[in-house]
Design brief:
Layout (H helix, E strand, L loop, with lengths): L1 H12 L4 H21 L20 H6 L6 H21 L4
Helix pairs in contact: 1-2, 1-4
C-alpha cells in the first residue's frame, strides 16, 4: 500500500502521467529494498534507509509482541502523502 500511495501522490500532485508515477514508485520501491538490504553491511546507509518503507517492515518484532520502532514516523509519512494526494486530486480539472 505504501508504494501505491506514493504513486497516487506523485500522479495527483505533479503533472506526471500515471505510467511515469508508477515507474517512479517502482524505482523507489526497488531502490528502497536494495538500500534496506545493504544497510546492515555499511554505516553510511543508516540515514537514507530511514526514509525507505522497507526499513520499518519488521514482522518478527510484531509477532513477538515487541514495540515497533519508527512506526510513528512511518504513519506520519502516510498521513502527509494522503493529505498531499487529496489536495492534489481535488485541484485537478477532470471535466
Amino acid at each position: 500500500m505504501s508504494f501505491g500511495l506514493i504513486a497516487f501522490a506523485l500522479h495527483s500532485v505533479s503533472r506526471l502521467t500515471s505510467r511515469a508515477a508508477s515507474a517512479a514508485a517502482v524505482f523507489i520501491g526497488f531502490g528502497g529494498y536494495v538500500i534496506a538490504s545493504l544497510s546492515s553491511l555499511t554505516d553510511w546507509l543508516d540515514l537514507p534507509v530511514k526514509f525507505m518503507p522497507y526499513h520499518y517492515f519488521t514482522p518478527d518484532k510484531v509477532m513477538l509482541g515487541e514495540p515497533v520502532t519508527g512506526l510513528n514516523l512511518y504513519l506520519a509519512g502516510v498521513l502527509v502523502l494522503t493529505v498531499l494526494s487529496y489536495v492534489g486530486f481535488r485541484r485537478r480539472d477532470i471535466a
